[in-house]
Amino acid sequence: MLNFDRFPSHALAEEFARFTNGTVYDSQDASDRVDPFPFQLDPPIVLVERDDDDDKEEAIKESVLRFGGVYAGT
How many CB atoms lie within 10 A of CB 6? Predict the structure, then answer.
């Protein structure tokens, strides 16, 4: 999974999730049930399935900036 966090609002996280076909979580406990992440994430959190296409993944990582979020890692 690709992990994104620190969105300025839940609405922007939801827009990003729709754009990337991801899922929004309001707590790290909830997102960890789907994909445990070893570092602290700041909600809202969006998890996006990984893609075999590296270029597509890079485009997703770069697009998060338009929604005010941060790429936290995989």
Answer: 16
Residue 41, both tokens: 């994430």
- The more confident residue out of 13 and 51 is 13
Domains of the chain by residue range? 2-73
Q: What's the rounded Cα separation, in Å, for the pair 40 and 54?
A: 25
pLDDT tens, residue by residue, 38-58:
999 999 999 999 989 999 999
What is the pLDDT, as a whole number, of residue 51? 87
CA separation for the pair 6, 47 (Å, rounded): 12
Mapping DSSP onto H, E and C, the string for 12-71 reads: HHHHHHHHHCCEEECCHHHHHHHCCCCCCCCCCEEEECCCCCHHHHHHHHHHHHHHCCEE
